[in-house]
Structures are given as structure tokens and as C-alpha cells.
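Researcher: Re-running this chain for the archive, since the previous output was lost when a drive failed. Same request as before.
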Amino acid sequence: LAHVDIASVWLGLKEERKAVVSYRSALSLVPNLPKALNNLAWILATHPDLEVRNGAEAIKYAERLCELSKHQSPVGLDTLATAYAEAGRFSDAVSTAQKAIGLVSPSANQAKILGMRKRLNLYKEGKPYRDQ
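Model: Regenerated C-alpha cells:
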């Protein structure tokens, strides 16, 4: 868990490459840490730098995360959709994003839902999502 905490610090400092190393270290010790799986997959799918992005690896981590939640976590499914889009699997990204949005509670943060819908529209246009 210390590796996950260190990765969070790196993210706060905008040092995503170092966060990736810490998340990988955490998962090498405990392969099913949801926070590490989600955050690592998200970085690998959305980072603006091509050298950091890796769609196939992002899918691997996001699929494991979704298996842990039995595909009932909107956050996990949103991450998986983003990973699919990075890998060019836009039809999978669209269907997965739609399922994620369908699982969001009506009382959820509206900004979160809006973000998910914006990403869904990108996938429908054949575009991946990039963090800024």
C-alpha cells in the first residue's frame, strides 16, 4: 500500500511517469489493488505523452479491475472504456462507456456524469480521450 500512497504523491506533483513505476511496484506485490489497477490503467490510457500511453497494458489492468467488481463499478468501466478507445477498439469503448453511465447513481456528481458522457461522444467519433 505504501507504493500506492507514493504514486498518489507523484500524481499530485504531476510526475505521472514516477506514479506509473510506483503503481507497477504495488501491483507486483498485490495484483488486485483496485486503486492501483484503476489509476495505472487510466494513466496508460489517457496520458498526453505517447511514450507513457499503452492501450494494451491499460486494458489488461482495467479488465482485471472490472473482474474484481463483477463489471458493476461505473468507475472501473469508465476506465476500461477509455483503455479500449486508446487501443482503437471504439465499439467496445462505446458499449462499455454506455454501461458505465447506466450504472451511475442518479444522485452522483453531475460533473462526473458529464465527463463520462463527453468521453462517450469522443469514442463515438473514433477519438480517444486525453488528460490535459
